[in-house]
Design goal:
Strand order of the largest sheet: 2-1-3-5-4
Helix content: 40-55%
Distance between the termini: 99 Å
Number of strands: 14
Shape: elongated
């Protein structure tokens, strides 16, 4: 018969049957609260790039998913393999994906944190820890996100609980079996479950040192971990090459104080807390210390070991192999919440003080959740779906939408909206100008979703090329995004009104358009086509003057070409520049007989360039207005 070894005296004390019933009902209510908070507005915000990647990745044939996990993506196979079958069963909607891979493990984590806390502290502390887990802004954020970390939190909480439970039962075979299963499943779900296993091993090692010998329970626990290693070794050996060369370039090493500060803020307040809430972080630190003090004496070392050992090892490894981000360390979050529950219920503190501390924690939590649910500036992703639907409804057959950063969310929502999309540049080191020019030659209109990022070289050059060589026809703002539609040279070729004028030492004016301004603004939009100028010695300002039949000025626009974005000193000899100007027109002004005067001058001396050509008037070009504009 296996002897039970108590981790903490807290388990030895039993309340009345009524108290136990009330405790169970309370925990069930907390789980329902956790479910409600995680379902609320679940699909209100569009998928993040990582979430969209998961769906597109898992939608591949299963063999391809496994192959890519081994050669290209540093993922164990369980998550995406399970998602593959879930997509076949439930479809690709945001709700279906987030429900199974965010909400379900998020609610399970609350129950597991309760069980973990009961291994260390009394029921009151466990219920408080479950309450904190149910409303924790960080956990809710990730529980409404399908990408790994809600599941990893639940897996780590389960590993820690079952590990301590096995130790409490003297590492009996019956108690070790669920632990071995949880540890193996956790590793096949995410590699960082290993740090939770490390926490259990650290506690066991501490006990073995205290007992001064390798007792039978220790040998059984050691064999259990050998079994976990054996079960995971086929995958680990196959993925070893990838793991040796895989790096997270966006996760640089941090100092230990910075790591602790970031985790304290994220785990206590979440990502969306108002600025004033930062002043409450010392309160969380004091409650954490009180939680350690609230542990029974022999369990104090266990709690401290679970909190410190895995995190310290993770930090040391991250110095050698950069990989820090707060979501990667969720293996310590269940212990953190358990200790907060203990601190808020520590009997040695006056009851009014405990209640006040709990109330303040809940107020801060509520403020963070309010911003998370209702403040669109804190939403985890922009409004991809509206942007893509807008491009579909305003577009025409043959048009294509360019996006200049490889965010998988674009592909996900473009597929749903039926919009053809093209990543431009296709690679980070592509010849952007040549690539965009080729697309502009194939299509009369191009849509652009500007997403330039520093890590994707050349991304901002796409918009720059379109600004200089195409005509912006539509501009729409949606939450977090701008959607632009450009008429390309191919789409403008038969629309130009003729102009013939060459400026001395400067470019040739080869054509022009006069259009109503976009988006319902007032005035006229004058579009100039410059050709063959090459770079000028000094930067020139373009002037566009609207004059009446009597020569009186009605409106004007003087500016550096392309709204100040393309000085003439940067022009190339082999290019055509599309230069749009908006000329304000006084209300009620008649345009019959009005003319445009266009020229170039030096802004430092105001000296105009001389011009030759049919439309020349010495130092400017005079152009007529189309009948549709002058006689509406």
């Amino acid at each position: 018969m296996t002897k039970e070894i108590a981790v903490t005296p807290a388990r030895a004390s039993h309340g009345s049957r009524f108290t136990g019933h009330v405790s169970r009902v309370t925990v069930h209510l907390l789980i329902l609260l956790a479910l409600a908070l995680r379902l609320y507005h679940l699909d209100q915000v569009d998928l993040r790039g990582d979430e969209a990647f998961d769906i597109l990745y898992a939608a591949q044939p299963l063999a391809e998913v496994i192959r890519n996990d081994l050669c290209c993506q540093a993922y164990p196979p369980l998550n995406h393999s399970a998602l593959h079958f879930w997509l076949l069963l439930a479809g690709r909607s945001e709700f279906a994906y987030r429900f199974l891979f965010g909400v379900v493990p998020g609610v399970l984590a609350v129950a597991l944190i309760y069980r973990l806390t009961r291994e260390l502290l009394p029921r009151t502390a466990a219920r408080t820890a479950a309450l904190l887990a149910a409303v924790n802004p960080f956990l809710i954020w990730w529980s409404q996100d399908g990408h790994f970390y809600s599941g990893l939190t639940a897996a780590c909480a389960g590993i820690l609980w079952l590990g301590l439970r096995a130790l409490r039962y003297g590492a009996s075979r019956r108690s070790l079996l669920p632990y071995v299963l949880a540890a193996t499943v956790g590793l096949y779900f995410h590699y960082f479950a290993a740090f939770a296993i490390l926490g259990v091993l650290a506690v066991a090692a501490l006990r073995a040192i205290r007992e001064r010998g390798l007792h039978p329970w220790a040998r059984r626990l050691l064999l259990a971990h050998v079994a976990v290693a054996a079960a995971f070794s086929p995958w680990a050996l196959a993925a070893l090459g990838l793991m040796q060369r895989f790096e997270l370039g966006w996760a640089p090493p941090v100092s230990l104080p910075e790591l602790l500060g970031r985790l304290a803020q994220s785990y206590s307040l979440g990502y969306t807390a108002p600025a004033w809430a930062l002043w409450t972080l010392p309160l969380f630190a004091l409650v954490l210390v009180a939680g350690l003090a609230a542990l029974p004496r022999r369990a104090r070392a266990t709690g401290l070991t679970l909190l410190v050992a895995p995190l310290l090892v993770f930090w040391l490894v991250s110095l050698l192999r950069p990989m820090f981000d707060d979501k990667f360390t969720v293996f310590v979050l269940p212990v953190y919440l358990a200790l907060l529950g203990g601190g808020l219920t520590w009997a040695r503190l006056p009851r009014p003080l405990r209640l006040a501390a709990l109330a303040l924690v809940l107020v801060v939590t509520g403020a963070s959740l309010r911003q998370y649910y209702f403040d669109h500036t804190t939403y985890k992703s922009p409004d991809w779906s509206t942007a893509l639907r807008l491009a579909e409804s305003h577009g025409a057959p043959g048009e294509v939408l360019l996006y200049n950063f490889p965010d998988p969310a674009v592909l996900y929502y473009a597929s749903a909206a039926g919009v053809p999309v093209r990543l431009t540049p296709a690679t980070a080191d592509a010849d952007v100008a040549a690539e965009v020019a080729a697309l502009a030659a194939e299509h009369e209109r191009l849509w652009l979703l500007p997403l330039a990022r520093p890590e994707w070289s050349g991304g901002d050059e796409v918009e720059r090329w379109l600004q200089r060589h195409c005509l912006l026809e539509e501009q729409h703002g949606v939450r977090g995004l701008t959607v632009l539609a450009y008429r390309t040279p191919a789409g403008l070729a038969d629309r130009w009104l003729p102009a013939e004028a060459r400026f001395e030492g400067g470019p040739q004016l080869a054509g022009y358009l006069v259009l109503p301004p976009p988006n319902g603004a007032t005035g006229l939009r004058v579009v100039l086509l410059w050709e063959g100028g090459g770079p000028t010695a000094v930067p020139y300002t373009v002037f566009v003057h609207l004059v009446g039949p009597d020569g009186i000025m009605l409106g004007q626009d003087d500016s550096v070409p392309v709204a100040g974005a393309y000085p003439t000193t940067e022009w190339r000899a082999d290019e055509a520049v599309v230069d749009a100007h908006t000329v304000a027109v006084p209300a009620g002004a008649g345009l019959e007989g009005a003319r445009l005067r266009v020229g170039l001058y030096r802004p430092d001396t105001m000296e105009r360039l001389a011009v030759d050509g049919v439309d020349s008037r010495g130092d400017y070009v005079e152009l007529g207005l189309p009948a549709a504009i002058s006689q509406p």
